[in-house]
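debug: dumping io for the single-chain case to check the tokenizer round-trip. Nothing else runs in this session.
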Amino acid sequence: MLFKSKKPNLIVWDKEKDKPLAAFKNGVFETEEQTVVKKLKTHGYEGEKAEKGEQ
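debug: decoded output
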């Protein structure tokens, strides 16, 4: 899943684990981990399926 942000180097913090959940580089973060996808969507981030090699 591909997530995009207007902030180029955004870090989303996981309060439960007290560590970074996602680190956006150049406004993009890609993951296939369903727990991360679910948490990001719960917090209002919109994702889209990534094409192979896209980022």
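debug: round-trip ok. The mean pLDDT is 92.
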